[in-house]
Write a structure and sequence with these properties.
This protein is mainly alpha-helical and about 130 residues long. About 65% of the residues lie in helices and about 0% in strands.
Length: about 130
């Protein structure tokens, strides 16, 4: 979903550019189609829940990647995201609201895990003859 933020393959500059692009998109959409502050906070909370589930999956369920608990840690944030998006479907355009929601969720992930912005690159193995 938003695994690029946690990847050591991307440079900090690339991650920062992606985060700034998402921030600008969020601001433009919010100014054009404002959403309620409670909805915004629910999307931020969904981002926080995504981080918690990812942490549990990586640190406690790494030996059992196909267990029911690992699958639940994958699907719980997605189910909550869909529930929050479809909760407002009668009041506004679903596509715009969904894009705003995913942007606010991504911003929540970026704000609650800034240490991954500066994750170093893996050591390069150079083979010499």
């Amino acid at each position: 979903m938003l695994e690029f933020w946690f990847s050591s393959q991307l440079s900090p500059l690339q991650k920062l550019l992606i985060a700034c692009t998402i921030l600008i998109l969020s601001i433009v959409l919010y100014l054009k189609f404002p959403i309620a502050p409670t909805s915004m906070l629910m999307f931020f909370a969904t981002g926080l829940l995504f981080l918690i589930c990812r942490y549990v999956r990586l640190h406690f369920l790494q030996d059992q990647p196909v267990s029911i608990w690992a699958r639940l840690m994958t699907w719980i944030p997605l189910a909550l995201l869909f529930a929050v998006i479809f909760m407002q479907h009668q009041q506004r355009d679903l596509l715009i609201f969904g894009i705003q929601g995913i942007c606010f969720m991504a911003l929540g992930i970026f704000l609650f895990s800034p240490q991954y912005l500066f994750l170093s690159h893996p050591p390069q193995s150079s083979e010499s003859k």
